[in-house]
């Protein structure tokens, strides 16, 4: 088992000139080595992403621009914008997360990393889980942290901002997981962005519904625990099923 | 031993000839039931006391809506069977389902809108059932889009199969969330597409239409299935016999 | 013939009832045509494949 970890660690070293924090190969139990491989895959994705900063910044810039479209197209009056703010914040987050999905597997499919993962004998499900976790850390979490800025520009009261951050953070977990299935299914498809949207958006609608409701309640000062719990339920369901489906889809694409 | 029927069903030449033989047994009853249901629904059934003759749209809307869900479920079950046991014929069934389901989902949407205008005063109302149908149409379009984008049939089968299974897990969640959402915003005065107080003379034609549409689906599925099975077999000798006939 | 025209009026709902029936029957007819065409096309393709291999019908 530890041999497999080493192989993944090797792939890390190949793409990475910095010395990797490789743990000495010991007589691991299978469970520990699975987690270790997932941790390494996660660390690798994070490190690669920080090297290509444009991929980090683009979805955030996109989110800011989508938010800006609404004052310009509806009205600059904050009282009117406040009413549509939940929709704007969530539609923007959905689209920005969709935009970032294209980066999720693309480079790894080109340079053969995915194939190496699949051949490593290591649980591809856990590796997909790690990649999705990295994707959420790199897009979902930053989007959640940026949502208050977008909210303020739409006249959302400051008291509502913590609720908005939490709802976007939880909801984007589900979005990343659903998106990982779509991104894995469209691997190798040329000009896949429209197809990816067509596959992912209908499945993401429950997240949009519960998320926008939580935001609405946050703005009006109502109890927003129920919709956030529903978002968390979606995230948990996604956590149990999406990495399995994404791993199956990656395998299919490699056949 | 008890599984021999299963293995035979997975055999392409057997399924091809079986499908050809079974088609008329579904097509003719389907035709008869639909004609009888039409007669009963349009002529024999009395007008609804509230909706007048407008309620007669139910005889085409409800069967179309039923088809949209039933076909999607069939598609997902077939896809799951194909993925789990690696059966080509099951994938062929799933691939045959999608265009049938999509066309009836579209019909359900249009008939729903046409029913909505006299009942709600507007063609489109964000009614939970119509909204779910619309999302279902997108699920079908995504499935067909993914199939069209993947050139290799085997890969298209398996990738679209994963999508169908993921989709069918999501359908109840989508339906629940849409109903939940609608209950928050529903103005109480808006009349829903209410099931009319249904008398036997109204119900019997509806059941005939539902059964007729279901049999029609099976008949069309069998015809499409033969084409899909043929296109998946590259060089088997049985093809020569069926093609030259 | 009065009852006939009454039937077609559908109690004033003709503009909704008949298009609804028309679109549904269009779906039925199109499904029949599409299914037949897709089967014919697959047969034609199979025939061509066999012919290309020199053992065609």
- What fraction strand of chain B? under 5%
SSE topology string of chain A: HHHHHHHHH
Q: Terminal Cα separation of chain A, in Å?
A: 24 Å
Measure the end-to-end span of chain B: 33 Å
Question: Which term fits the overall shape of chain B?
Answer: globular
Characterize the quaternary organization of these chains.
heterotrimer
Largest sheet report of chain A: none
Counting H and I runs of at least 4 residues, what is the number of helices of chain A? 9
Series of secondary-structure elements of chain B, N-terminal to C-terminal: HHHHHHHH
Return the structural class of chain A. Answer: mainly alpha
Cα radius of gyration of chain B in angstroms: 20 Å
Largest interface: B-C, 42 and 36 residues
Q: Count of helices of chain B?
A: 8
Uncertain runs of chain B are 187-192
The coarse silhouette of chain A is: elongated
Number of strands of chain B: 0
Helicity of chain A, in percent? over 70%
Mean pLDDT of chain A: 86
Number of domains of chain A: 1
Mean pLDDT of chain B: 88
**What's the Cα radius of gyration of chain A?**
19 Å
